[in-house]
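Practice problem 4.
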């Protein structure tokens, strides 16, 4: 008899409970979406900073003409000179690729954080009935 009465209550309690759950999901989703936006911006900035530092390092290495000239003066082996030219060309190529790499990595991060979807997981409802009423 108690079970039947509780079952009769569900059609009136269920929709109200679902509305409350959805309201809580929406509140939490808005809060988490703001946190995700912040985290995305931080990660995009961090990638930009790392690649900017790499760019500075490569430019410093390429601008060190004394290094390139000194080595080329002392290197008499043509294979060693050729390796030096190849090293410099590789640095120049890497430097030229950095803007594209930065854009690609930052776009990938933005896509990863884009369009979050709220989730409502199943919930159980337990009715606690005193033994005197059961």
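Answer key:
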């Amino acid at each position: 008899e108690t079970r039947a009465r509780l079952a009769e209550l569900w059609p009136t309690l269920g929709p109200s409970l679902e509305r409350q759950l959805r309201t809580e999901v929406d509140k939490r989703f808005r809060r988490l979406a703001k946190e995700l936006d912040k985290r995305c911006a931080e990660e995009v900035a961090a990638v930009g900073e790392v690649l900017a530092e790499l760019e500075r390092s490569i430019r410093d290495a390429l601008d060190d003409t004394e290094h390139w000239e000194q080595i080329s003066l002392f290197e008499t082996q043509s294979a060693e000179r050729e390796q030096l030219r190849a090293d410099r060309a590789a640095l120049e190529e890497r430097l030229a690729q950095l803007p594209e790499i930065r854009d690609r990595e930052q776009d990938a991060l933005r896509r990863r954080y884009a369009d979050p979807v709220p989730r409502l997981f199943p919930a159980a409802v337990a009715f606690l009935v005193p033994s005197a009423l059961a």
